[in-house]
Amino acid sequence: MFTLNDLVVYPAQGVGKIERIDHKTVGNEDCELYIVRIRANNVTLMVPVGNASAVGLRTLTQPEKAAAILESLRTDCNRTVFTGQNWNRRYREYSERLKSSDLAVVAEVLRELMLIGRTKELSFGERRLQDQSMDLVAGELAEVLHMDENSIREDLLAIYAPESTEMRE
Q1: I want to staple 133 with a disulfide (CB 3.0 to 4.6 A). Which of 25, 110, 146, 149 is the partner?
Q2: Structure pTM?
Q3: Angstrom distance (rounded) from CA 51 to CA 42
């Protein structure tokens, strides 16, 4: 499925590179493993080759889809987000969605958290999820679209900046 030096995405971790394909004996069984180094945090993961798709290991998003996701984040920023559920339920829901192998799902979590953060204070957990989703989205978009990750991040943060609460005189 993947070969040495392929760039891949591991859900909730981000873009990584297949550094090696190893064979290990676990119990009495011989296992073939992808050794993936995640670029953002230098973590090394061992993913069984036969289980790679089940855990969500995938190729990078196609450039056309990545461009559409970035454009959507930039232009669909005035939506109202339903925040009827408490922060704890939202946190659990968003945590699950960040494990998706679909970048569009992760980008939607980012959009919703940034929209909520415009009008009210995010909980500590929600801020961590926003940071995590920003890392995942900006990291993959930068890689696929050959852009600077910090530029993507700064652009999105500026677009979704909280509404000013200062009174006009």
Answers
A1: 110
A2: 0.89
A3: 22
